User: Fold this.
Amino acid sequence: MDAVLPAHDLWLRILEKVENEVKRPHFLTWFQNTAILSYHDGLLVVGVPNIFAKDWLEHKLGGQLMQAIQMVNPEVKEVMFEVDPQLALPEDNRALDVNKLFSKEKKMRKMPGRQEVRLLEGISSKCLNPKYTLQNFVVGGSSRLAHAACAAVGQKPGAMYNPLFIYGGVGLGKTHLLQATGNEILANDPDKVVVYMTSERFTNEIVEAIGKRNSKEFKDRYRKVDVLIIDDIQFLANKDRTQEEFFHTFNELYDNNKQIIISSDRTPKELDQLEDRLVSRFEMGMIVDVQFPDYETRLAILHSKAREHEVLIHPEVLEFIAMNVHDSVRELEGVLIQAIAQGQLEHSTPTVRSVAKIIKKLGRTHLEGFDEPSEASQNRSFHPEDVIELVAQHFRLPQEELMSDSRKGHILLPRQVAMYLVRHELGASFEQIGACFGGKNHTTVIHACEKVEKQLRRDKNLLRDVNSIKKEMGL
Ligand code: ADP
Ligand code: MG
Assistant:
C-alpha cells in the first residue's frame, strides 16, 4: 500500500461508493483534494486539505465513509483523518479531483498518476487551476500593485517586469496571483508554454533527472518554456544542486526574454539560505508584496466568494466573518465555505451564532460583535415555506399559486417578492429557491430577485408591501 497508485485506486473505488450515499455538494466540498496517506494493520489514514474537511469527515460523514470502505475492503478497521496542507495545492497529484468522478467517460480513464503532471511532452499548463483568475482576485489597497504587475505580465509576458517576484505571508493570495497570471497569458495566447510548479516539485524533477543522469534532457525541456512560474521559492533553501540548476535555467530563460514569475514568503534579501547570485537575479526585476487585506477588502472578498458559490449570506454574517478572521484569506474563505456547507446540510442559513461557532474552532476566543447578535440575525430560523405562507397571506393568494407557473401579473409579482425575500432574508441559493417554488430554473430566480430589487427603488407601494411582510417575519 505504499505505492502511490494502488492507494489512489483504492481511494477512487471507495469514493465511487460514497458518491452514491452523500449529497453532491457535500461530496464535492469535503472529498475534494483528499488522498490516502497510509494503510497499515487495518488503519487507513486519509489526508485532507484543511481542518474543516477533517472536522466534517470525522463528525458528519464518517459513518457513510466507513460503510463505503467496508464494501471495498473489509480489512480496514479504522479510519483516521490527517490535515496535509500540501493537498490543498492544485498540483498535488496524490489529491483526488472529485469533479472527475462525475463523468462516466472520465471515470473510465485512469486517474492521474505521477506521470501525467510531469513536464514531458505536453509541457503543459495542466498544472494551472482555471478557478484562479485576475478578475476574481479582489483588489484592495495592499494588493493593488501586485495585481497590476500581474495584469501587465499577463498582457505582455517577458516584456516588462522580469522576473516578477511576489512575496507575502501564508494564505494571502500569492498562488492565486501566480496561477491567474499564467491563465491570463494562456487566454491571450494559447500557444504559449506556461509552466507552473512549486519549488518542491522543481526540486523533485531535478533530483530525478540527476538520478537518471539525464540532466541534459531536463535542460532541453525547460528551453521550450515561455513562462516559468515557481511558487514558494523559499523551499529551495539549502538545496544547493537545485539552486545551481535553477540558476542556469533562470539565466537561459531570462536571456531569451522568457517570463519568470516567482513567489516567496519573504523578500529576496531575507532569503538568506539562497545563494547570493540567485537573490541578486530576483532583485533585477519587479518585487511586489501582498499583505493581509483590510476590513473592506475582506468583506469584498467574502461577497465575491459567496457569489461564486451562488449563495447569498446575510451581509451581517459576512461582516461578522470579515471582522473576526484575521490571519489569512485562506482562513476567511474556509470559514465561509464551511458556513455554506453547514447551511446546506441543515437547510438553514448561516447566522452570526453558527458562524461564531465555526470561527471559535480556529482557536479564537474573543469574537468581535458576538455578545450582542442583532435581533435580525437571531430570528432567522425562518424557512422558505414560512416566507411563502406570509407572502401568500399578504397578497391574499393561495400558496399553490405562488408555486405555480402562472405568469399573470397579480401572481407573478408576489411570487417574485417571495423569491426575493427568501434570497435576501434567508440567504438561500438560487437553486434552492428554484426548488422551493416548484422546481423553477435558477435563472428565473435570479431574474426575479433583480427585478424586485430594481422595482423597490422606485415603487413605494411595493416597498410598503415588502416591509410589512418583513415585519411579520420579525425583521
Ligand atoms: P498563498 O499562496 O499566498 O498562501 P493563496 O493564493 O493560496 O495564498 O490564497 C488562499 C485563498 O485565498 C485562495 O483560495 C485564494 O483564491 C483566496 N484569495 C486570497 N486573496 C484573495 C483576493 N484578494 N481575492 C480573492 N481571493 C483571494
Ligand atoms: Mg501558495
Q: What stands out?
A: The chain has four domains: 7-100, 144-290, 295-360, 382-472. Confidence is low (pLDDT under 50) at residues 1-5, 102-126, 372-379. Residues 375 and 475 are 8 Å apart (CA to CA). Residues 4-21 form the longest helix (18 residues).
